[in-house]
Amino acid sequence: KLVRVTLRNAKADDVFAILLGFRTDSLKDLAVLDLAGGDLTDEGLMQFKGLTSLRHLDLRGTNVGKLAAELPGWFEQLEFLGLPKGAVGMFARLAMPRRVKLEIGDA
């Protein structure tokens, strides 16, 4: 079973996200998804909703925007969330569940 996917830099884009999204049924055990530094946007991010066992999601340095604030609601087991600068505002940061360690910045 696959529990970790790491793909950094430009290869981690919306097309990759769509391909991963088609495989969510076979990725039920995926716990770590590291796409830091990629060209991923909110459009690609939507493809990950079915990856319910994610515990670690690193999107630092990507082009993900305001949709990132909703991620802890999608992934109830999420413990780490890395986001790019500007993806979430102060109020969204304060609303993050205590279980989620939030890191903001570049990859």
Helix proportion of residues, in percent? 10-25%
Let me know the number of strands: 5
Please, what is the average pLDDT? 94
Count helical runs: 4
- N/C terminus separation: 27 Å
Strand content: 15-25%
Largest sheet strand order: 1-2-3-4-5
Characterize this entry briefly.
With 107 residues, the chain is of the alpha/beta class. The protein has helices at 14-22, 42-45, 71-74, 90-94, and strands at 4-6, 32-34, 56-58, 80-83, 101-104.
Question: Can you offer a commentary on this structure?
Answer:
Helix content is 21%, strand content 16%. It is an alpha/beta fold and 107 residues long. Strands 1-2-3-4-5 form a 5-stranded parallel β-sheet, with no helix packed on it. α3 (71-74) links the parallel β3 and β4 (80-83).
Question: Which short descriptors sum up this protein?
Answer:
alpha/beta, five-stranded parallel β-sheet
Describe the protein's topology.
Blueprint: E1 4-6, H1 14-22, E2 32-34, H2 42-45, E3 56-58, H3 71-74, E4 80-83, H4 90-94, E5 101-104
Parallel strand pairs: 1-2, 2-3, 3-4, 4-5
